[in-house]
Design goal:
The chain is an alpha/beta fold. The chain has one domain: 3-Layer(aba) Sandwich (UDP-N-acetylmuramoyl-L-alanine:D-glutamate ligase), CATH 3.40.1190.20. 37% of the residues lie in helices and 22% in strands. It is built from eight helices and nine strands. Strands 3-2-1-4-5-6 form a six-stranded mixed sheet. Strands 7-8-9 form a three-stranded antiparallel sheet. α1 crosses α7, α2 runs parallel beside α3 and α3 runs parallel beside α4. The longest helix is centred in the last third of the chain and has 17 residues.
Length: 260
């Protein structure tokens, strides 16, 4: 069976991140992709030059239209730039008891541009994080959510569980070293480390979107969370390793979602 995977995120017209990256990932991993747009961005590989939020009432209408008609096997949540949209998304996911929710707390683009308002961080922690089966922050996002510096990845991942999510997949891409190390912490006390060789490339645009989408796709296929995370990391590592096959822009280029 081909699972139906829903992305709730912003649009990246350059195609490397946001719903465009999500849909490419879903297709590459054998899923049927759907997308509810929460924001329009003007961005390329050099940065974000503009953001226009979709009105929360229309976000709600998009979501209800999907859930009233289509069985959803997993949900990936990306850019939700204000508190009103976050509340709408949380209410709809609860109303329809959406399964396999992967929350990527998108706050800053690879270029360093902010993608979320200050009040949205608190709203995300209050309304959305407790609904997530797995939260997938990078180091800066983890520090914003916990209001603490990440000094130890395992302790930081376990600490974020107190926000109410089912599991935390903490990404270590911002750290230095020959290995790119991620940590999965679950509410049952289980910890798992995922490691891969760090790839020296500037082409990291959309890595967070791609990883969380891959986890959602594999969960939609029915894999246990630990296995979904392992396969998602393998997919992302290949996508980064083969990113030089693309010729897109002159800044932080995208990963290669069609990597084999």
């Amino acid at each position: 069976m081909i699972p139906n995977i829903l992305s709730i995120a912003g649009s990246d017209p350059s195609g490397g991140a946001g719903v465009q990256a999500d849909l490419k990932t879903f297709a590459a991993l054998g899923g049927y992709g759907m997308a509810v747009i929460t924001a329009l961005t003007a961005q390329n590989t050099n940065g974000v030059t503009g953001v226009m939020d979709v009105p929360e009432d229309f976000v709600k209408q998009q979501l209800e239209t999907i859930f009233e008609d289509i069985h959803v096997d997993a949900v990936k949540i990306g850019m939700l730039s204000n508190a009103a949209i976050i509340k709408v998304v949380a209410n709809i996911l609860k109303k329809y008891t959406a399964p396999n929710i992967v929350l990527d707390p998108v706050m800053v683009a690879t270029s360093g541009d902010s993608l979320i308002s200050a009040d949205a961080v608190d709203a995300m922690k209050q309304y959305l994080v407790p609904l997530a089966d797995v939260l997938t922050p990078n180091i800066p996002e983890a520090e914003k959510l916990s209001r603490k510096a990440v000094l130890d990845m395992e302790e930081a991942a376990k600490g974020l569980l107190s926000l109410g999510c089912g599991a935390v997949y903490l990404k270590g891409g911002h750290l230095k070293g020959a290995q790119a190390t991620d940590i999965l912490a679950k509410n049952d006390g289980a910890l798992r480390k995922y490691e891969s060789d760090r790839i020296d490339t500037p082409n990291t645009h959309g890595t967070g979107c791609t990883l969380s989408s891959a986890i959602a796709a594999y969960l939609g296929h029915g894999l246990p969370l630990e296995d979904a995370c392992a396969k998602a990391k393998d997919y992302l590592t290949k996508a980064i390793a083969q990113s030089d096959d693309l010729e897109v822009g002159c800044g932080h280029g995208p990963v290669n979602h069609g990597a084999q």
